[in-house]
Amino acid sequence: MGKINTTATKGTILHRLLKWLRSGKGQRTVIMISFMSIPLLLLIIFAYLPFLKMFEFSFYNMKYIGERKFIGFDNYRDVLTDKEVMNSLKLTLYYLLGSFVQLALALYYATMLSFKTKGGSFFKGTIFFPYLISGIAMGFMFRFFYTRGFVLDTVLSWLRFELENLPYWLRDKNVNNMALVATSVWKFMGQNMVLFIGAIMSVDRELYESASLDGANRWYQFRYIILPSIKTIVILNMILSITGSLSAFEPPYVITGGTRGTSTFFLLMHNMAHRHQKVGKASAMALILFGLILMVTIGQKLIFKYGFTDSNEDISQKTTRMLRKQRAKEGKQ
Fold first, then answer.
1. CB contact at 8 A, 222 and 142
2. What Å distances lie between residue 333 and 214, 265, 327, 329, CA to CA?
3. How many Cα neighbours within 13 Å face the side chain of 237?
4. CA 314, CA 229: separation in Å to the nearest integer?
5. pTM
6. Within 13 Å, how many C-alpha atoms sit on residue 291's CB side?
7. If we measure between CA atoms, which residue out of 97, 87, 86 comes closest to residue 241?
8. Per residue of the chain (333 residues), what is the pLDDT tens digit?
């Protein structure tokens, strides 16, 4: 009797399962799991498992092929006490400052081109076009551009600058990193501009009309309407720019090869792994870089949580209040 009851119970469960799979809800669930499982499997194979292996490698003195020697945290200690590594981290400041210049220019052009401007479509395409160029191709372009006596020096000579007084843009350590940062600004400014334009275009046009009736000029409209409305996109672009400055690679790799003090942390990590075959130390550097990016991400979360607590307040009410305060100050003056 016990076996018969067990068999009947299994048959009932199987019947219910088949009935559920034939139903619309069951079929939607199966399709959803199928579509989710394949990307998740690929993510585990090509992202999470390599990350775990890299974490393991960071505790070994090893090459790609050959013996491995467990050395604990020595790789991390070597990275944090290596002057060359610390100098490469200092170069991040150049790219960090360049990212803020890039965002400021992108926001300026986005604000100008979001309204009716003669030739606006042409300027949008022109500014966005560099982002479509391959990083390697961009590097070769600017390597030629900065070469002594070529494009940049020729243009400056037209402006009455003496060639002898101009620096060697890729050799002089006082200017070579700024020259490389300028290439990143040129390439990625268009991408940020397009994101800003999309955010600005989503702002209710009636807010501009109300502000105009209250006597607000373009500057006040930008300050009290546009900027508060797109602050989420601004912060997101700031975070992406900061993480990008930490992992700058293509400009120094292609243009200078990391010579004359232009080797960034990411480029140094690349050379450590593939040129010097110090896989363990390179893995430790990668994990340190991951930690820095994680800290930036946590900072982003804190900024969103505590820096913008009034994000749900109606923008038009804030705009009206700020304009009244501004007019009151101007009246006192």
1. no
2. 19, 52, 10, 6
3. 26
4. 10
5. 0.77
6. 8
7. 97
8. 444 555 556 567 777 777 777 777 777 888 888 888 888 999 999 989 999 999 999 999 998 888 889 998 999 999 989 888 888 888 888 898 998 899 999 999 998 888 877 888 888 899 999 999 888 899 899 999 998 888 999 999 999 888 888 899 998 888 999 999 999 999 999 999 999 998 888 887 777 777 777 777 778 788 888 888 888 888 888 888 888 888 888 889 999 988 888 989 989 999 898 888 899 999 999 999 889 888 877 887 777 677 655 444 455 555 556 656 666 666 555
State the amino acid at position 141 in one-letter form. Answer: M
Amino acid at 75: N
Q: What is the CA radius of gyration of the chain?
A: 28
Place of tokens 């009206």: 320
Locus of tokens 């672009």: 237
Q: In Å, how far are 25, 28, 32, 43 from 38, measured between CA atoms?
A: 21, 16, 11, 9
One-letter amino acid at 192 equals N
Query: Coil, helix or strand for 117?
Result: coil
Residues across the chain? 333
How far is CA 82 from each of CA 86, 90, 136, 197, rounded to the nearest angstrom? 6, 13, 29, 43
| 173 vs 78: CA distance, rounded Å | 26
Give the tokens for residue 195: 């994101």
CA neighbor of 113 nearest in space, from 183, 184, 199, 182: 199
**Hey, what are 140's tokens?**
């070769």
